[in-house]
Amino acid sequence: MKTVKIVGVPEHFNLPWHLAMEEGAFEDRGIDLQWEDIPEGTGRMCQLLSENKTDLAIILTEGIVKSISEGNQVKIVQEYIASPLLWGVHVSAQSDFENLSDLRGAKTAISRFGSGSHLMAFVQAQNEGWDPNTLQFEVIDNLDGAIKGLSDGTADYFMWEHFTTKPIVDDGVFRRLGDCPTPWPCFMLVATEKFLQENKTLMAHILEVINLYTAEFKNIPSIDRTLANRYGQKLEDIQTWLSLTSWSQNQLDSGVLENVLDTLQQLKLIEKALPLRHYLEDI
Protein backbone atom coordinates (compact mmCIF):
# COMPACT_ATOMS: atom_id res chain seq x y z
CA MET A 1 0.00 0.00 0.00
CA LYS A 2 1.22 3.46 -0.90
CA THR A 3 0.34 6.16 1.65
CA VAL A 4 -0.96 9.44 0.19
CA LYS A 5 -1.89 12.43 2.35
CA ILE A 6 -4.71 14.74 1.32
CA VAL A 7 -6.28 17.77 3.03
CA GLY A 8 -9.54 19.65 2.56
CA VAL A 9 -12.18 21.62 4.39
CA PRO A 10 -14.74 19.71 6.52
CA GLU A 11 -17.60 20.63 4.19
CA HIS A 12 -20.20 18.87 2.06
CA PHE A 13 -18.24 19.44 -1.18
CA ASN A 14 -15.79 16.73 -0.14
CA LEU A 15 -18.20 13.88 0.59
CA PRO A 16 -17.26 11.99 -2.63
CA TRP A 17 -13.74 11.52 -1.24
CA HIS A 18 -15.05 10.15 2.04
CA LEU A 19 -17.46 7.77 0.31
CA ALA A 20 -14.66 6.47 -1.92
CA MET A 21 -12.42 5.90 1.10
CA GLU A 22 -15.19 4.26 3.14
CA GLU A 23 -15.99 1.90 0.28
CA GLY A 24 -12.34 0.90 -0.19
CA ALA A 25 -12.06 2.29 -3.71
CA PHE A 26 -8.53 3.61 -3.15
CA GLU A 27 -7.41 0.54 -1.22
CA ASP A 28 -8.43 -1.57 -4.20
CA ARG A 29 -5.77 0.34 -6.17
CA GLY A 30 -3.13 -0.16 -3.46
CA ILE A 31 -3.52 3.38 -2.12
CA ASP A 32 -3.82 4.25 1.57
CA LEU A 33 -5.42 7.68 1.19
CA GLN A 34 -5.21 9.58 4.48
CA TRP A 35 -7.60 12.53 4.70
CA GLU A 36 -7.17 15.40 7.17
CA ASP A 37 -9.81 18.08 7.69
CA ILE A 38 -8.42 21.62 7.76
CA PRO A 39 -11.09 23.92 9.24
CA GLU A 40 -8.77 26.94 8.88
CA GLY A 41 -9.14 26.64 5.11
CA THR A 42 -7.01 27.53 2.12
CA GLY A 43 -4.30 29.63 3.77
CA ARG A 44 -3.41 26.79 6.12
CA MET A 45 -3.53 24.23 3.30
CA CYS A 46 -1.15 26.34 1.19
CA GLN A 47 1.27 26.25 4.12
CA LEU A 48 0.98 22.46 4.48
CA LEU A 49 1.62 22.02 0.76
CA SER A 50 4.64 24.32 0.82
CA GLU A 51 6.11 22.34 3.73
CA ASN A 52 5.40 18.99 2.01
CA LYS A 53 3.24 17.96 4.97
CA THR A 54 0.53 16.88 2.56
CA ASP A 55 0.67 15.50 -0.97
CA LEU A 56 -2.73 16.64 -2.26
CA ALA A 57 -5.35 19.24 -1.38
CA ILE A 58 -8.87 20.21 -2.38
CA ILE A 59 -8.39 23.95 -2.26
CA LEU A 60 -9.93 27.24 -3.37
CA THR A 61 -8.87 28.35 -6.85
CA GLU A 62 -7.92 31.95 -6.07
CA GLY A 63 -5.91 30.93 -3.00
CA ILE A 64 -3.79 28.30 -4.68
CA VAL A 65 -3.20 30.42 -7.80
CA LYS A 66 -1.92 33.22 -5.57
CA SER A 67 0.26 30.78 -3.63
CA ILE A 68 1.78 29.26 -6.79
CA SER A 69 2.42 32.78 -8.12
CA GLU A 70 4.42 33.42 -4.96
CA GLY A 71 6.59 30.32 -5.42
CA ASN A 72 4.70 27.43 -3.85
CA GLN A 73 5.84 24.30 -5.73
CA VAL A 74 2.33 23.00 -6.42
CA LYS A 75 0.33 22.29 -9.57
CA ILE A 76 -3.38 22.14 -10.34
CA VAL A 77 -4.13 18.55 -11.35
CA GLN A 78 -7.73 19.27 -12.33
CA GLU A 79 -10.89 21.11 -11.42
CA TYR A 80 -12.84 19.55 -8.58
CA ILE A 81 -15.88 21.83 -8.37
CA ALA A 82 -16.68 23.53 -11.67
CA SER A 83 -19.37 25.86 -10.31
CA PRO A 84 -18.74 29.10 -8.39
CA LEU A 85 -18.60 29.21 -4.59
CA LEU A 86 -21.34 31.31 -3.05
CA TRP A 87 -19.69 33.41 -0.36
CA GLY A 88 -22.17 34.71 2.20
CA VAL A 89 -21.36 38.11 3.69
CA HIS A 90 -22.20 37.83 7.41
CA VAL A 91 -22.48 40.21 10.34
CA SER A 92 -23.46 39.64 13.93
CA ALA A 93 -27.24 39.36 14.23
CA GLN A 94 -26.98 42.00 16.98
CA SER A 95 -25.12 44.53 14.84
CA ASP A 96 -26.54 47.67 13.24
CA PHE A 97 -25.38 46.75 9.73
CA GLU A 98 -28.33 46.41 7.36
CA ASN A 99 -26.88 46.56 3.84
CA LEU A 100 -23.64 45.62 2.08
CA SER A 101 -22.97 49.31 1.53
CA ASP A 102 -22.88 49.79 5.32
CA LEU A 103 -19.69 47.72 5.46
CA ARG A 104 -17.51 50.31 3.71
CA GLY A 105 -14.57 50.90 6.07
CA ALA A 106 -15.62 48.05 8.41
CA LYS A 107 -13.21 45.36 9.60
CA THR A 108 -13.48 41.92 7.99
CA ALA A 109 -12.72 38.67 9.79
CA ILE A 110 -10.48 36.28 7.83
CA SER A 111 -9.28 32.78 8.63
CA ARG A 112 -5.75 33.83 7.67
CA PHE A 113 -3.96 35.91 5.05
CA GLY A 114 -4.02 34.21 1.66
CA SER A 115 -7.24 32.38 2.49
CA GLY A 116 -10.45 32.59 0.49
CA SER A 117 -12.07 34.78 3.14
CA HIS A 118 -9.15 37.20 2.71
CA LEU A 119 -8.99 37.20 -1.10
CA MET A 120 -12.75 37.32 -1.66
CA ALA A 121 -12.98 40.42 0.55
CA PHE A 122 -11.08 42.20 -2.24
CA VAL A 123 -13.47 40.86 -4.89
CA GLN A 124 -16.40 41.99 -2.75
CA ALA A 125 -14.84 45.45 -2.35
CA GLN A 126 -14.37 45.71 -6.10
CA ASN A 127 -18.01 44.71 -6.66
CA GLU A 128 -19.16 47.41 -4.23
CA GLY A 129 -16.89 50.09 -5.69
CA TRP A 130 -14.75 50.40 -2.53
CA ASP A 131 -11.03 51.12 -2.54
CA PRO A 132 -9.49 47.69 -1.77
CA ASN A 133 -6.51 49.45 -0.18
CA THR A 134 -8.75 50.58 2.69
CA LEU A 135 -9.74 47.06 3.76
CA GLN A 136 -9.00 46.13 7.37
CA PHE A 137 -8.56 42.54 8.56
CA GLU A 138 -8.80 40.56 11.78
CA VAL A 139 -7.41 36.99 11.72
CA ILE A 140 -9.86 34.61 13.46
CA ASP A 141 -8.53 31.18 12.30
CA ASN A 142 -11.82 29.38 11.64
CA LEU A 143 -15.60 29.51 11.80
CA ASP A 144 -15.69 29.28 15.61
CA GLY A 145 -13.27 32.20 15.74
CA ALA A 146 -15.54 34.18 13.43
CA ILE A 147 -18.55 33.59 15.68
CA LYS A 148 -16.54 34.90 18.64
CA GLY A 149 -15.02 37.79 16.70
CA LEU A 150 -18.31 39.08 15.31
CA SER A 151 -20.11 38.58 18.63
CA ASP A 152 -17.54 40.53 20.68
CA GLY A 153 -17.00 43.22 18.04
CA THR A 154 -13.37 42.34 17.24
CA ALA A 155 -14.45 42.24 13.59
CA ASP A 156 -17.51 43.50 11.75
CA TYR A 157 -18.19 41.05 8.93
CA PHE A 158 -17.14 37.61 7.74
CA MET A 159 -17.28 35.91 4.35
CA TRP A 160 -17.75 32.13 4.27
CA GLU A 161 -19.54 29.55 2.14
CA HIS A 162 -23.28 30.31 2.16
CA PHE A 163 -24.60 26.87 3.06
CA THR A 164 -21.93 26.00 5.64
CA THR A 165 -22.86 29.12 7.59
CA LYS A 166 -26.63 28.91 7.06
CA PRO A 167 -27.30 26.98 10.31
CA ILE A 168 -25.54 29.81 12.17
CA VAL A 169 -27.76 32.33 10.38
CA ASP A 170 -30.85 30.22 11.16
CA ASP A 171 -29.82 30.12 14.84
CA GLY A 172 -29.79 33.91 14.97
CA VAL A 173 -26.03 34.25 15.56
CA PHE A 174 -25.13 35.66 12.12
CA ARG A 175 -27.19 37.78 9.76
CA ARG A 176 -26.41 37.50 6.04
CA LEU A 177 -26.40 40.79 4.13
CA GLY A 178 -25.80 39.25 0.71
CA ASP A 179 -23.74 36.81 -1.35
CA CYS A 180 -20.60 37.17 -3.43
CA PRO A 181 -20.07 34.31 -5.93
CA THR A 182 -16.59 33.55 -7.20
CA PRO A 183 -16.16 34.57 -10.86
CA TRP A 184 -14.56 31.16 -11.59
CA PRO A 185 -14.77 27.43 -10.68
CA CYS A 186 -14.22 27.29 -6.95
CA PHE A 187 -12.29 24.17 -5.87
CA MET A 188 -9.23 22.57 -7.45
CA LEU A 189 -7.46 19.27 -6.83
CA VAL A 190 -3.78 20.13 -6.46
CA ALA A 191 -0.58 18.21 -5.75
CA THR A 192 2.95 19.12 -4.78
CA GLU A 193 5.45 18.99 -7.62
CA LYS A 194 7.51 16.53 -5.56
CA PHE A 195 4.56 14.11 -5.35
CA LEU A 196 3.79 14.43 -9.06
CA GLN A 197 7.38 13.83 -10.10
CA GLU A 198 7.55 10.65 -8.03
CA ASN A 199 4.00 9.31 -8.47
CA LYS A 200 2.68 10.05 -11.97
CA THR A 201 0.94 6.66 -12.36
CA LEU A 202 -0.42 6.77 -8.81
CA MET A 203 -1.91 10.21 -9.45
CA ALA A 204 -3.66 8.84 -12.53
CA HIS A 205 -5.22 6.07 -10.40
CA ILE A 206 -6.43 8.59 -7.82
CA LEU A 207 -8.03 10.65 -10.57
CA GLU A 208 -9.77 7.60 -12.04
CA VAL A 209 -11.33 6.78 -8.67
CA ILE A 210 -12.47 10.24 -7.63
CA ASN A 211 -13.75 11.09 -11.12
CA LEU A 212 -15.94 7.98 -11.10
CA TYR A 213 -17.39 9.05 -7.76
CA THR A 214 -17.98 12.69 -8.65
CA ALA A 215 -19.50 11.82 -12.04
CA GLU A 216 -22.17 9.67 -10.33
CA PHE A 217 -22.44 11.58 -7.04
CA LYS A 218 -25.76 13.36 -7.67
CA ASN A 219 -27.35 10.09 -8.82
CA ILE A 220 -26.72 8.25 -5.54
CA PRO A 221 -30.13 7.39 -4.01
CA SER A 222 -31.05 9.78 -1.16
CA ILE A 223 -27.70 11.58 -1.39
CA ASP A 224 -29.48 14.75 -0.28
CA ARG A 225 -30.54 13.09 2.98
CA THR A 226 -27.06 11.64 3.51
CA LEU A 227 -25.52 15.10 3.08
CA ALA A 228 -28.07 16.77 5.35
CA ASN A 229 -27.48 14.21 8.12
CA ARG A 230 -23.69 14.18 7.89
CA TYR A 231 -23.24 17.93 7.74
CA GLY A 232 -26.06 19.14 10.00
CA GLN A 233 -27.99 20.87 7.23
CA LYS A 234 -31.66 21.25 6.45
CA LEU A 235 -32.75 18.98 3.62
CA GLU A 236 -34.13 21.86 1.53
CA ASP A 237 -30.85 23.77 1.89
CA ILE A 238 -28.83 20.76 0.70
CA GLN A 239 -31.20 20.30 -2.23
CA THR A 240 -30.70 23.93 -3.24
CA TRP A 241 -26.93 23.58 -2.86
CA LEU A 242 -26.90 20.40 -4.99
CA SER A 243 -28.82 22.21 -7.73
CA LEU A 244 -26.14 24.94 -7.81
CA THR A 245 -23.08 22.67 -7.60
CA SER A 246 -21.33 20.72 -10.33
CA TRP A 247 -18.30 18.46 -10.00
CA SER A 248 -15.66 18.36 -12.71
CA GLN A 249 -13.49 15.65 -14.23
CA ASN A 250 -11.47 18.04 -16.42
CA GLN A 251 -8.38 20.20 -16.12
CA LEU A 252 -8.88 23.91 -15.45
CA ASP A 253 -9.30 25.80 -18.72
CA SER A 254 -6.32 28.04 -19.45
CA GLY A 255 -8.62 30.97 -20.28
CA VAL A 256 -10.27 30.67 -16.86
CA LEU A 257 -6.86 30.55 -15.20
CA GLU A 258 -5.86 33.72 -17.05
CA ASN A 259 -9.01 35.42 -15.71
CA VAL A 260 -8.08 34.43 -12.14
CA LEU A 261 -4.55 35.76 -12.64
CA ASP A 262 -5.80 39.00 -14.21
CA THR A 263 -8.18 39.57 -11.30
CA LEU A 264 -5.48 38.89 -8.70
CA GLN A 265 -3.19 41.34 -10.47
CA GLN A 266 -5.89 44.01 -10.77
CA LEU A 267 -6.52 43.72 -7.04
CA LYS A 268 -2.74 43.87 -6.40
CA LEU A 269 -2.83 40.49 -4.67
CA ILE A 270 0.03 39.17 -6.80
CA GLU A 271 2.90 41.08 -8.37
CA LYS A 272 3.02 39.11 -11.60
CA ALA A 273 1.64 36.03 -13.27
CA LEU A 274 3.94 33.13 -14.09
CA PRO A 275 3.71 31.25 -17.41
CA LEU A 276 0.66 28.96 -17.36
CA ARG A 277 2.79 25.80 -17.29
CA HIS A 278 3.76 26.68 -13.71
CA TYR A 279 0.13 26.26 -12.60
CA LEU A 280 -1.29 23.34 -14.58
CA GLU A 281 -0.24 19.70 -14.49
CA ASP A 282 -0.70 17.47 -17.52
CA ILE A 283 -1.52 13.98 -16.23
Automatic annotation (TrEMBL):
Ca3427-like PBP domain residues: 93-179
Keywords assigned by UniProt, alphabetized: Signal
Keyword Signal on entry: yes
Example of a GO cellular component annotation carried by this entry: periplasmic space
Main localization, broad class: periplasm
Pfam families with a match to the protein in the record: PBP2_Ca3427_like
Cellular compartment(s): Periplasm
Coiled-coil portions: none
CDD domains xref list: PBP2_Ca3427_like
InterPro entries reported for this sequence: Ca3427-like_PBP2
Family according to the record: Belongs to the bacterial solute-binding protein SsuA/TauA family.
Identification of the protein by name: ABC transporter substrate-binding protein
Organism: Maribacter aurantiacus
